[in-house]
Amino acid sequence: MLADHPIDVMLLATDLAAARDFYGERVGLEVLIETEQFLTFKAGGDSRLVVTESTRGTREEQTKASWRVDDVAAEVAELRSRGVEIAEYDTPGLKTVDGVADVGFALSAWFVDPSGNSIGLLQLKDQRLG
Questions:
Q1: Structure confidence by residue, pLDDT tens digits, 104-123
Q2: Which of 29, 33, 47, 129 is deepest in the core (most CB within 10 A)?
Q3: What is the pLDDT of residues 24-83, one digit of tens each?
């Protein structure tokens, strides 16, 4: 059954070198596989992030992937120290304070990669959901 197997997140990138620098150097992920068409990065557990070359990139603003973390504020601080810009929002229904928003069931933060993919961080309030 598929429920017994890990799943990989796949993102589009218009510039694989920029994606390699961003996810490898700034975010701090280890490159597992690198070809002319895609990059595969190691993430927590048995999860992987695959970035595939695209001439178009992405045009959607919705979050494409989200890391479940224990301390979103600490992760935001770490990412900022590595040069990652954390998104700030002040709209009806979504307001961040120092990059972190309370979305009810979780504390969340977001950053955007060089190809426009919105990536989230999620600290669940009920640890049983994680």
A1: 999 999 999 999 999 999 99
A2: 29
A3: 999 999 999 999 999 999 999 999 999 999 988 777 788 999 999 999 999 999 999 999
Task: Please give the model's pTM, rounded to 2 decimal places.
Answer: 0.88
CA-to-CA separations, 54 to 39, 48, 82, in angstroms, rounded = 12, 19, 26
Non-local CB neighbours of 120 within 8 Å, separated by 6+ positions:
63, 65, 66, 67, 108, 109, 110
The conformation of residue 24, written as its DSSP 8-state character, comes to: I
Which residues lie across from 2 on neighbouring strands? none
Nearest to 114 by CA among 63, 58, 46: 58
Rounded to 5 degrees, φ, ψ at 71 are -145, 95
